[in-house]
Amino acid sequence: MSVLSGNAATALVRAELRARRGALLRFGAWSLVQALPQTLSGVAVARAVDDFLAGRWWPGATWLGVLMTAALLSATATYRQFPWLRQIVDPIRDALLAAVVSAAVTAAVQAGGRPDASGVAQLSTQVQSVRGVLGALLRAMRQVVVSIGGAVVGLFLLGPTAALLCGLPVLAAGGLFAMSLAPLARRYRAALAAAEQYAHHAGEVLGAARDVLAHGADDYALSRVDAAARAEASADRALGNLVALRGIYLFIGGPLPLGLLLMTAPWLLRHGYLGYGEVVGTATYLTVSLSPALRALLDAVGTWGLDLLVTLDRLSRRFVAARTDQTAGVPLPAGRDLRLEQLSFTYGSRAEPVLHNLTFTVAEGDHLAVLGPSGIGKSTLAAVAAGLLVPTAGTVRLGGVDLANLDVTQLRQLIGFIPQEAYVFAGSLDENLRYLAPDTDPVAVAAAVQTLGLGPMVSRLGGLDTAIGAGGAHLSDGERQLVALTRVYLSPARIVLLDEATCHLDPEAEARVEQAFASRLDTTLLVIAHRVTSALRARRVLVLDGDGSTVGTHEILMRTSPTYAELVGYWQTRPEHDDLAPPTTAVHQSAQGAERR
Ligand SMILES: Nc1ncnc2c1ncn2[C@@H]1O[C@H](COP(=O)(O)OP(=O)(O)OP(=O)(O)O)[C@@H](O)[C@H]1O
User: Do 105 and 235 have their domain in common?
Assistant: First the structure.
């Protein structure tokens, strides 16, 4: 077999087990010999007790001798079993390894590259752990089967009363445990998945600590990790609740029948259902064989069994993911249109919603400006649209795919978000510009510098290789914004969200930047406007105004949106105020109204 898929690893193990039937039979035969002491313990003790009570010393001693001989034979059988066990688990490991390596090589050849050596090494370690766990599970299960089988035979030798008294509760405990196995496996998988998610989010945040701090995204980062931590705790609790039932099964299969036996013993003795020796023998089977076997069964299946199941599962899944594509299973957006549907967002559970039931689409290649009074939720909208904040209700779809279903790395490559506070890190200007696209060729960098108007700044600094101190200390606010904007301009992201990202630029520089992004190939542009001129340049405008939010062209909005007309009118009469400072008239009132809602 060269390719693993689905539950292929489990199927392969099953097939190998079937193929090793001979070794399994021999392993089982030695296990029967190994079971002799368990089978004979109760009967031998019962007979010995009865013989000694009747003064028959030699027959009594002979029963004890039989028991000791059985113990010796059992020790020999344990020793003879191991080669057969190795003949079962080693070929399974080899078959899994062969499948893993050959599929990795096949995948690499198909993709025209080299096999991922570290990935294969990781999978090999998992295969090795499968061998260990499978061996341990087989040994434990052999012990369980032998103990229970031996005890059942012995109990029948003692008589049907003993068999019923002990057998039924143990059977009930085993049945209940068997019924809990499927949900147990489900919850075990869920707990592992939640733990992985938590580790993934924590690792992501730690790995991006510099960017998180620079963008002031601590709250957002914390909310992602916090949600994952809560999900993990809840999955662990759900698993723990089920695991806790183990105590009940153990009680039903151990202390309960023993108590019943001891309580009913006088009555059983009086009516001749059991003799003294048989009472002691039955108690021996319960305490020496059945109860420990039940405990071992619960331990082995509840730990190694689940481990094995999940490792085989993952081996198949991880391998399939490695051999197809890093993004396998993650849906790919079919286009670059951004659709917000019945979207609401609230900061905190008791806060008023900032965005309420908002629906609009930014079509592929469109240029939309968002306008609205201060504090109405424009930045919040941009962060939700960029997938940085998770909507409280509704969805954001990119090319038809809910952002929630997109892989974070993929999302960051698709959407470029530039906040007001531009982030510049210590390094050369060139490194800062290529940060999101390190392979960009110098000609493209030079062209972007020209297009976005960075030329004078580059000359002033003395070239692209000039080092910029931490935080761009020697740059003006506007220059820092130009660096951040050019960085996204050079990136592969084709959905660009500018959240007042040009607020420190003069109107001409702002116009040049917006023009550059609007005419950039295949770019869908959403601009949170700092000046009304941004709206005049856009193809369409979204006026954010609480429940009265509306989308349209400048001409239409001038006729239909009093808020928009007010903002434009205010700006036209106060051109020296190029900022969108909220007037104290209707617009401001509407903003307050929206906040109240
Ligand atoms: N992290 C946060 N926690 C709680 N409330 C917040 C948070 N961020 C913003 N808000 C509140 O949400 C509302 C909308 O804020 P937002 O920054 O989105 O508005 P805006 O329209 O972009 O404002 P401006 O034009 O002044 O930048 C405001 O009332 C603000 O106080």
Answer: yes
